[in-house]
Specification:
About 30% of the residues lie in helices and about 20% in strands. It is an alpha/beta fold. Among the domains are: about 180 residues, TIM Barrel; about 200 residues, Class I glutamine amidotransferase (GATase) domain (Rossmann fold), CATH 3.40.50.880; about 70 residues, Golgi alpha-mannosidase II (Immunoglobulin-like), CATH 2.60.40.1180. A 10-stranded mixed sheet has the order 11-10-12-13-20-19-18-15-16-21, with helices on both faces. Strands 5-4-3-2-1-9-8-7-6 form a 9-stranded parallel sheet. Helix 5 runs parallel beside helix 8, helix 10 crosses helix 14 and helix 14 packs across helix 17.
Length: about 700
């Protein structure tokens, strides 16, 4: 069917006479899939146990008749008012003990057995009713887990947390050891004494906070899994997913990926951020990598402005098209929006939609319709994959631990550090997987570790094995400091990596806000900010030194030969220019080449391909995306044709070695088809006898 295209459909907001118009306009806009029912619980179950699916039957039947697939939501993201009235114990509480009341959405405690019981009962009704329905293509469980209720601290959650701890540690002695409770007289004599890390006079126990973050993620996932179990039993063969959020701290995308049949993401670019496409690139690569390169789904984005930022600017002309194609270029097989028809009331009435308040005679609707036609013109992109020689490591457990209190610096931000290391690879046009540290690494030429403050002994051994076998590894500051319980590894920083890195960090030297320090040597001469370390060499060589401040003359960047490989260590955060120069040099050492040589600044290049098979031709697409606001010329390594321009009648099919991309322009390039063989010669008529 090609790239799925469409958006959230909320017909319950509109009178039924509008529904027929919706179907007509969807067909005209080339919509092929909608997500339906996300917030329909109160409409289909207006009273406990009294179900009214008649209106939704008409919606499903109409969509099927129009040839539009449905990503059917389980409707459990926002409980109806009657449920919280009858069972106020389902409402969540914050760490301050304050209850969160109905009136918005996600007003439920993830650990609540009452909420789960009612949610599962609804899902059973949905699955039985729509199993085998011709419109049903995909199940969408819940919605944006952890978006508003990231954790709950109520008594129900406390009891569930104690159950979780018993399963994890088995004995109180093991818990006390893991949580270092000898500190501050916190030793427990019974699991019954343990509470969530509620608001306290000063810093709560960091290991307790870390485990509560793990527990909170598990509690959210248990809600998802309870519903998925029903769907798997009653509609086998229909894939199940849920929409994750980008760099969303409460939800470990890698842990969830093993329970999702296909990864799905909501991503809302900020038109006021000139380089937000880099943040998007990181999120898209993580989605693609989470299930080992499997295509993923962009389930939500905005056609124009959103409603929830302090300043909600529209996407300029061409930006929505460009950013949608960016998702496809980085592995998406679906591009959907929130939402189809713009609401007249409610909290999101000023959030843009595919069909705005102004109707079809609007710029947004024209751009949406044109984009749908483009995806329709190139259906064979769907199912193709990307391959990367570089892996960037990310770990939610390390992220959770890094940003707890009582650190040498409160300015350490996991997302900013990760993006700082991702950006040079993205801007160089280098394909990059974003994977957890327990992933098999031997297939990568280069592995980059922006930060792994929390590093288990097993994962440290995995990194050493990778380098010893010939891998190239880059590790940045404040990595390998604590174990899985946020306890400092004994033996001097960074104990599990000292032999691999060939150095010892004597002291951490965080920089003051806004200050920088000069670094000289090798390819990375320039300035650095945020952090520095007093490094003693134990076999490594210094590539660059600090040249000012208290650490003047001490190593800033090192290199160490280890086994058949090499590892680089950055004891500071280099500014973008020096970091790009260093990683370009490291890439050359590792034999990693970009998609296109000499890629102009602001132009993104990616590849998706399929090897084909005995009955299918191989397919390879090279995507060029111009994130600049002016036209740019791009030299190609060999003659290629712009399949997108040709398929939409916007250009020639003739191969070219140079292409001009307009501002925010997109090209989808393919190699020319080989010339067909003639029937002359030995296979010609004279020899057929």
């Amino acid at each position: 069917m090609g790239i799925r295209f469409g958006g959230d459909y909320n017909p319950e907001q509109w009178p039924q006479e509008v529904w027929a118009e919706d179907l007509k306009l969807m067909k005209a806009a080339h919509v092929t899939m909608v997500t339906a029912g996300i917030f329909s619980w109160a409409k289909v179950e207006p009273r406990p146990g009294a179900y009214d699916f008649g209106w939704f039957d008409r919606v499903m039947d109409g969509l099927a008749g129009a040839g539009i697939e449905v990503c059917l939501a389980t409707m459990t993201a926002s409980p109806p008012p009657w449920l919280s009235r009858a069972h106020p114990e389902i409402l969540p509480e914050g760490p301050d003990g304050q209850r969160r009341w109905p009136g918005g959405r996600q007003h439920y405690c993830p650990s609540s057995p009452v909420y789960r019981e009612h949610a599962v009962r609804l899902v059973e009704q949905l699955a039985d009713r729509y199993a085998g329905h011709p419109a049903l293509a995909l199940w969408h469980v819940g919605n944006e887990y952890g978006c508003h209720t990231r954790q709950c601290f109520c008594d129900v959650s406390a009891a569930d947390f104690r159950r979780w701890l018993r399963e994890r540690y088995e004995t109180v002695d093991a818990l006390n050891d893991a949580w270092s409770t000898a500190f501050w007289s916190q030793a427990y004599s019974d699991f019954a004494e343990v509470l969530p890390p509620r608001a306290a006079p000063t810093f709560p126990n960091p290991a307790q906070q870390l485990d509560y973050l793990r527990f909170g993620d598990d509690a959210l996932r248990a809600c998802y899994l309870a519903e998925k179990a029903v769907l798997d039993r009653r509609t086998p063969g229909v894939p199940v997913t849920t929409n994750l959020m980008p760099q969303h701290k409460p939800v470990d995308a890698f842990a969830w990926s093993t329970h999702m049949d296909v990864m799905a993401l909501d991503f809302y670019q900020d038109p006021h951020e000139p380089d937000d496409h880099v943040r998007a690139g990181y999120a898209f690569d993580l989605m693609r990598s989470a299930r080992s390169g499997q295509p993923w789904l962009l389930l939500e984005q905005a056609p124009g402005a959103v409603n929830w930022r302090p300043r909600n600017g529209p996407k300029p002309p061409g930006a929505m098209r460009l950013w949608s194609w960016q998702a496809v270029a980085q592995g998406a097989d679906a591009v959907l929006y929130f939402q189809w028809r713009q609401s007249l009331g409610g909290a999101e009435k000023f959030h843009s939609a595919m069909l705005p308040h102004g109707g079809t005679r609007t710029r947004v609707h024209r751009e949406v319709t044109a984009l749908g036609a483009e995806f329709k013109a190139l259906p064979d992109i769907a199912g193709t994959r990307s391959r990367a020689d570089v892996a960037l490591l990310a770990d939610w457990h390390s992220w959770w631990a890094l940003e707890l209190d009582s650190k040498p610096s409160t300015a350490l931000d996991h997302s900013r550090i990760a993006l700082a290391h991702y950006r040079p690879l993205f801007e160089a046009g280098v394909a990059c997987d974003v994977v957890p540290p327990d992933r098999e690494l031997s297939g990568y030429r280069l592995v980059v570790v922006p930060n792994l403050y929390l590093l288990t002994a097993r994962d440290a051994t995995r990194l050493a094995t990778y380098v010893r076998g010939g891998g190239r590894l880059v590790v940045s500051f404040f990595s390998g400091i604590v174990d899985e319980h946020d306890r400092v590894h004994p033996g001097g920083y960074p104990a599990p990596l000292r032999e691999l890195l060939g150095l010892r960090v004597e002291e951490f030297w965080p920089l003051e806000a806004g200050s920088t320090v000069a670094v000289e040597g090798g390819p990375c001469a320039g300035r650095a900010d945020l952090w520095s370390e007093a490094i003693d060499l134990e076999g490594a060589e210094a590539l660059a030194h600090f040249t000012e401040g208290d650490l003047a003359g001490r190593p800033a960047v090192t290199r160490h030969a280890y086994g058949r490989g090499t590892v680089w260590y950055l004891g500071t955060r280099l500014e973008p220019g020096p970091l790009r120069a260093l990683l370009d040099d490291v890439r050359a050492h590792a034999g990693v080449t970009p998609v296109l040589p000499d890629l102009p600044e602001g132009v993104q290049a990616t590849v998706r391909e399929a090897d084909g098979g005995p009955h299918a031709p191989s397919r390879k697409y090279t995507f060029l995306l111009n994130h600049r606001t002016e036209a740019v010329d791009v030299a190609l390594p060999r003659p290629l044709s712009d399949a997108l321009a040709a398929a939409t009648g916007a250009g020639s099919t003739a191969p070219t070695e140079r292409i001009t991309l307009p501002a925010r322009g997109v090209a989808v390039l393919t190699a020319p088809e080989p010339a067909a063989e003639t029937d002359e010669g030995a296979e010609g008529p004279a020899s057929r006898g």
